[in-house]
TrEMBL record:
Membrane-spanning ranges: 12-32, 58-80, 86-106, 118-139, 145-166, 178-196, 216-235, 247-267, 300-320, 341-359, 405-425
GO biological process, one term: ammonium homeostasis
Topological relation to the membrane, as annotated: Multi-pass membrane protein
Keyword Cytoplasm: no
Record carries keyword Protein biosynthesis: no
Domain Ammonium transporter AmtB-like: 21-434
Species assigned in the record: Amphiprion ocellaris (Clown anemonefish)
Keywords: Ammonia transport, Cell membrane, Glycoprotein, Membrane, Transmembrane, Transmembrane helix, Transport
Name of the protein described by the UniProt record: Ammonium transporter AmtB-like domain-containing protein
Length: 465
């Protein structure tokens, strides 16, 4: 290993500094929320009413997606399996604890403390998913130090964007198509633009897959596929909204899966399946239904969205990804622009259409819960009537459907702009010489950052036994 890629000082120094910083910040600002605080319990409290039992299943499901689903999915390169899985593990573990703090500071601004419970962990996992999606654009070309720095910088940019969009623009985005998928995509593309390597446009000798690496990657796809309904429904309103989110996600994933198999066979010269299509394109439906996942869009619309997302994703891989690399200096290693960018735009458009078509005839009074910004403002007589039908309904902004649709459009452009600028600036930092970046020749190779000799010795010992 060359001195330029040695982690002996760089990674331990970074981890030590960040651990000291986080210990201080956790000690000063972080405490339990009411559902985790022993002082809030008494003899009349029913333990089963604790939010733990409502939120933990979603936390566990998203954990599986983050650490196993993404980890296995990113292990598709023949000589980069260790790095794909382990760098995902390292980045996710760091990102979640960092996101708890950064997202919590907005809570601190109002409450003077960061109160955490399981739901905060779920929110931190969603922020982590943003970083891991962006990671896909630079897979194989970055060091673990660079990835940790990317997480360190991306989480604040994401958290500020999320806070600004939700507080001031105020949108409907239950499945995170705008704030998770679009943000992650264009942030990652900004980073990879700054890390452009001209020599990789012609391919790399180790940029190949193998029988076993493809199987491992498909396992990641299956974990993501199975748990995606939890991802899309975790933060929706409990009850029928959450029920619809699960149904729509499953239907969208199912239709995108069978469409992916059909397209893969049709466009393969030998009429056979291509593993890259199975690993990635099958998941498109989960993203495409995201923005409207809790709305009354009808099952057939979810089915159609799955097909549309899959088709856009498939042709994006075949034609758009090579074009971006050749013409726009964007080497999107995992094709995140196809699976998260194109499908995120389709999903956001579908969400806008669903908002424009929403009426009380279809939704009943609950329309003002789902589209909370369309609820009457404080003091409006209609608000009192609705609150008699829906106790606890909060005042809204009194927006019309057309006004809300325009705000959705504003959120899309705001999110993409913030992500792209943040990605470009982060890429500039990651390009600094002391970040242990591998050379062009060393890309897509585990041996750069792993002691493969020790691994081979262990394998030899096991074979001897």
């Amino acid at each position: 290993m060359s001195a330029s890629t040695s982690l002996k000082v760089r990674l331990p120094a970074f981890v030590l500094v960040m651990e000291v910083v986080m210990i201080i910040l956790y000690a000063m600002f972080v405490t339990y929320d009411d559902n985790a605080n022993a002082k809030m319990q008494n003899n009349e409290t029913n333990p089963m009413d604790n939010s733990m039992y409502r939120d933990y299943p979603y936390f566990a499901d998203v954990q599986v997606m983050i650490f196993i689903g993404f980890g296995c999915l990113l292990a598709f390169f023949r000589f980069y399996g260790f790095s794909g899985m382990v760098f995902n593990f390292l980045t996710a573990a760091f990102t979640i604890q960092w996101a708890i703090l950064i997202q919590g500071f907005f809570q601190f601004y109002y409450n003077g403390k960061i109160h955490i419970g399981v739901i905060n962990l779920v929110n931190a996992e969603f922020a982590c998913a943003v970083v891991l999606i962006s990671f896909g654009a630079v897979l194989g070309k970055t060091s673990p130090v660079q990835l940790l720095v990317m997480s360190l910088l991306e989480i604040p940019v994401f958290s500020v964007t999320e806070w600004a969009v939700l507080k001031y623009i105020r949108i409907n985005d239950a499945g995170g198509s705008i704030l998770i998928h679009l943000f992650a995509c264009y942030f990652g593309l900004g980073v990879t633009f700054m890390l452009y390597r001209p020599s990789l446009n012609a391919g790399h000798a180790k940029e190949t897959t193998s029988y076993h690496s493809d199987i491992l990657s498909v396992m990641g796809t299956l974990f993501l596929w199975v748990f995606w309904p939890s991802f899309n429904s975790a933060l929706t309103i409990k009850g029928d909204d959450q029920h619809r989110a699960v149904l729509h996600t499953f239907i969208g994933l199912s239709s995108s899966t069978i469409t992916a198999f059909a397209l893969s066979a049709v466009f393969n010269k030998r009429g056979k399946f291509t593993m890259a299509d199975i690993q990635n394109v099958t998941l498109a439906g989960g993203v495409t239904v995201g923005a409207s996942v809790d709305m009354m869009i009808s099952p057939v619309a979810a089915y159609a969205l799955g097909i549309m997302g899959c088709t856009a994703c498939f042709f994006g891989y075949r034609y758009l990804t090579p074009f971006l690399a050749r013409r726009m200096r964007i080497q999107d290693q995992c094709g995140i622009h196809n699976l998260h960018g194109l499908t995120g735009l389709i999903s956001s458009t579908a969400g806008i259409v669903a908002i424009l078509l929403a009426t009380e005839e279809t939704y009943g009074p609950s329309m003002y819960q789902i589209f909370s910004h369309r609820a009457p403002p404080e003091g409006d007589p209609k608000l009192l009537e609705l609150q008699q039908l829906i106790p606890g309904l909060k005042p809204g902004l009194g927006r019309t459907a057309q006004e809300q649709a325009l705000y959705q459009v504003a959120a899309i452009f705001t999110t993409i702009a913030a992500a792209a600028i943040g990605g470009l600036l982060t890429g500039m930092v990651m390009n600094l010489s002391f970040m242990a970046s591998p050379s062009d020749e060393d890309c897509f190779d585990d041996e750069v950052f792993f002691d493969m000799q020790l691994c081979h010795m262990r394998l030899h010992f096991i074979n001897c036994i």
